[in-house]
Design a protein that fits this description.
Helix content: 40-55%
Radius of gyration: 17 Å
CATH superfamily: HUPs
Shape: globular
Number of domains: 1
CATH class: Alpha Beta
CATH topology: Rossmann fold
Distance between the termini: 33 Å
Length: 233
Amino acid sequence: MADTSALVLFSGGQDSTVCLAWALARYERIETIGFKYGQRHSVELGQRGIIREKLARLGETAKRLGADTVLDLPALQSISDTALTRETEITFAATGLPTTFVPGRNLLFLTYAAALAYRRGINTLVGGMCETDFSGYPDCRNETIQTLAQAIGLGLASPMSIETPLMFIDKAGTWALAQTLGGDDLVQLIIEDTHTCYVGDRSNRHAWGYGCGICPACELRAKGWTEWQRQTN
């Protein structure tokens, strides 16, 4: 393992948890960052500490898991009128994008993360963005992320790479990666403790975890679980 460090964008969801496990297997020092922006599924924030604590017990990762930072970005909610920041129906807008799309969210998250990473002496960000099996958000595309990485590096006069280990795999592949990284223990942690459901439902327990079962995030997670189970059985 190289003498390196990384800052992981960690929401408390399935994808960011897999990315955190991925980073812990590759970097000597890991910090995490999360964002409070008035999200409808703010329950995810409460899961972050639980997940970090349990991940630290898996293998020998505790000594590599460092500080956690949560930034409050209320302005993002005030300028957004989306189903992730308002109690409105999750549907598709005239643009063809789901109403859960929060314009500029990942751009802002990565920029704030880069500012913190710069101060911490970290030159790598890790995020769970994916353009293979997702809701169609344009700020999840590889071209967007890597172009932003170049702009951030120029703006800081310091190189800043953005690693996206899930970018080109589907949700079944994400489950498979979790199994590879941490075996059954990590898979169970993801099922029991991560939160992805857009409406914040943790009252319904499914084979793949907690959620309403009908929002786009739940549908993607369930579909990936079913496909992964089919591939492994």
